[in-house]
Amino acid sequence: MDTYGYMILGFALVFTVIAIHLASFAIRSRNLSRDLDLLEKLNRRAPKKKQAHTKKKN
Amino acid sequence: MVTNSVQPEPRLLRILNYVSAVLMMSAIWMMFFYAPSAQLEAGGETQRIFYFHVATGWVGMAVFIFAALAGIVYLARPHPTWDVLSVAAVELGLVYSFINIATGSIWARPVWNTWWTWDPRLVTATVMELTFLAYLLLRQSIEDPQRRARFGAIYAILGSLTVPLTYLSIRIWRTIHPVVIGSGDPSAQGTFDMVPQMLHTLLFSLLAFTIFGITLLWHRVRLGWLSERVEQVRMKAMRS
Fold it and tell me: Which positions in chain A touch B95 (Cβ < 8 Å)?
């Protein structure tokens, strides 16, 4: 019985699952870093806007 | 508070990246060029995936137990780091256990003449996998971070009971699954004889996957810290 096909299938599965897992780390890390940058920018802008709004009121 | 999130990779982690890459490549080399082919009754060439199968099974079970230990520590001293550790361990355990079950199924096809059978080891391993899959799904349904972490800790502790059950299933019940670790045990139903080269490859694969697992766990924990940090900044943005 030729068992090479099953061996190739097994190795292909292992490498694919590990590759997807590693890629998911990179994608999630990139997305989270992007979110963090955006939120920090918003946080920096927010006090300035607040000050401008209070000055206008006065 | 979790604040050490977007920092560059620590030196030890960078070293671990290289070490685990070298170990994994060496393990794969040994699987193909050092370990001989098995007899046809043991799977012939398919038996080479057995090194992945056992190694991923071992790491999968170890990280599930680690998740439970992190849960115990969280309940004793509630700190987000323990929750991050627990989630990271469960995610890694799910990936490794999935590889374990899938490679076992591929090996079984030429040896047992079926992809799947309702054998106690296969069933308990699948129950373990589904139990921890439910952990991740149920966590998503809880909004409050502290409640989510407390729930996660208790669930991980209870879920970890499936680990010894899976490990001992081949000794407790009659099964066709071979006993690899401690096959000399009189309570073991099936034996698994290996030539020295096979044993060396198996032990080396166990080492390689353990180091690789630790490296991945560390990366996943850093990702968890980053996620916590984003959550904190988001809350701050919403307040201002």
Answer: 17-18, 21
Look at B39-43, B102-106, B212-216, B219-223 and tell me which has the smallest mean pLDDT. B39-43
Comparison of pLDDT for B28 and A56, the residue scoring more: B28
DSSP state of B35: S
Identify whether the C-beta of residue B126 lies closer than 8 Å to the C-beta of residue A33.
Answer: no
Q: How distant, in Å, are the alpha carbons of A55, B10, B148 from that of B87?
A: 47, 21, 11
Three-state secondary structure call for residue B195: coil
Q: Which residues of A touch B220 (CB under 8 A)?
A: 25
Return d(Cα B107, Cα B112) in angstroms, integer: 8
Q: For chain B, how many helices (H) and strands (E)? A: 7, 0
- Within 8 A by CB and 6+ apart from B143, the residues are none
